[in-house]
């Protein structure tokens, strides 16, 4: 599954993505526990990193495209940090 440079082939990355998708589905069966939701989002971030680094071929693109994609991923991370407490703790009252 590896090529001559020692890195994983695209098919190998695809198998990792499918496996991690299955793990996310299994974790989803545990309900809305904080650990399961955190693990699902961590796996999603890992999968996004794999797709961006292996399938989008950004290393051969101009710098402004890499900067743009990384900026958008940063904005997505900010949204994640802001929205996850609402998703995880829905229905629970928090004293202000």
């Amino acid at each position: 599954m590896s090529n001559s440079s020692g890195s994983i082939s695209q098919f190998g990355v695809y198998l990792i993505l499918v496996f991690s998708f299955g793990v996310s589905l299994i974790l989803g069966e545990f309900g809305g526990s904080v650990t399961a939701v955190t693990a699902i989002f961590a796996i999603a971030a890992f999968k996004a990193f794999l797709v961006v680094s292996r399938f989008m071929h950004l290393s051969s693109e101009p710098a402004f495209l890499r900067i743009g994609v990384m900026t958008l991923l940063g904005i997505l991370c900010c949204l994640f940090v802001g929205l996850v407490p609402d998703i995880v703790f829905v229905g629970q009252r928090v004293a202000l």
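The radius of gyration is 17 Å. The chain is about 70% helix and 0% strand.
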